[in-house]
Structure formats: C-alpha cells, structure tokens
Amino acid sequence: MTLANQVVVLDFETTGLSPDNGDRAIEIGAVKLVDGQIVDTFQELINPGKHVNNFIEQYTGISNNMLKHAPSSKEVMAQFAKFIDGFNLVAHNASFDKKFLDAEFKHNKLHYTGQFACSLLLSRRISQDAPNHKLGTLVSYHQLPNDGVFHRALADATMTSYLWLHQLDELQQQLPQHQITLDIINKISSLPKAQINRYYQTMAR
C-alpha cells in the first residue's frame, strides 16, 4: 500500500522552463516524510555547466559564482538517487519537477521507481476557494509554517511538505474510514472539480 504520508517532497531550481530546450537543474531540495513526520532533508547546488542568465540569478538568488564551485549533476544525482530509493515523490506542479528529475537522471544513467503526486493538482480539487494555487498563496491561505524564503529549493520543498500534510489531514477528515494512499490522491487529482463531493460520498459507503 502506497501511503501518502511516506514520501519525498522535492523541488528544483533550474536555468529555465524546459530540459527539452537544454535547461538544467541548478539546485535540488527535498524533504523525507515518514508517518507524516519530517525525518530527513536533502539540499545541493548543482553546476549546470552553463551560464545562468540575470533573471534566474535574481529570481532564485543563486549566482553564477555560487554554481561555479558547486558539485556536478552526476555527483548530486547519484546522492539523490540513494535519498529517494524506495519512496514515492511529491512536488508542487509536479510535471515541472518530474521533467527535470527525469532529464537529470537520464543524463547520468540513473533510474527511480517511485510514482509522482502533485500538491498543486490536489489543491485545485480540495481547496477550490483558494485565491489561486501558487505555493506562496496556499502557504498564506492555509496559514502554514514558512520562513519567508521562496524560490530556493529546500525552502520550497519544506513549504510543500507542510502543504501536503495539511492536504492529507483534510482528506482524512473527508474519508475517516480510509488510509490516505497515493492512489486515492491521484484519483482525486484526476477528477473534474464538480465530482469531488460525489467521490467522497462513494468512498464513504
């Protein structure tokens, strides 16, 4: 059973929006949850082997000088593969982070077995009254812990982990007879918004 409270929550900072266009990861941060508790974290800058433009430097606070002395993708991804071994994965806007994880692992001939879930897609279904579903908005809307730092990988992964645990609590209240699994979350995340309450009712029978 793939319990949703035993996952690795991850976040990438990158040189751009798409590895298909040659963009690379410049930082990875991750939080390991076991039984709904933070038990470990992972954070590394990554030398992308290319110059980072001024927008990305300002957006992330990660400078070319910082990256010049950072370890290679090969070194960091080998460590990260061990960190996530046996765990399923969560990210906010997971399609973005999955693209970069897949690309960086492919570059380095690495593999992972965990499946992904997306806290953004889940939020659109179970927090329909939120002003929007950006991470910063949801942290404020749900009054979740944060240190005021955004667009650094470990800070964003930590905030996403608090959001994820909040979402699991909300689902547990709706489905008190069920253990919340990734299968349940991915089912909810794929439903039209108007069908969520009907799904809860069906599961409660």
From TrEMBL:
Record's keyword annotation contains Nuclease: yes
Keywords assigned by UniProt, alphabetized: Exonuclease, Hydrolase, Nuclease
Domain Exonuclease span(s) in chain numbering: 6-173
SMART domains: EXOIII
Enzyme Commission no: 2.7.7.7
Catalysed reaction, written as an equation: DNA(n) + a 2'-deoxyribonucleoside 5'-triphosphate = DNA(n+1) + diphosphate
Protein name: DNA-directed DNA polymerase
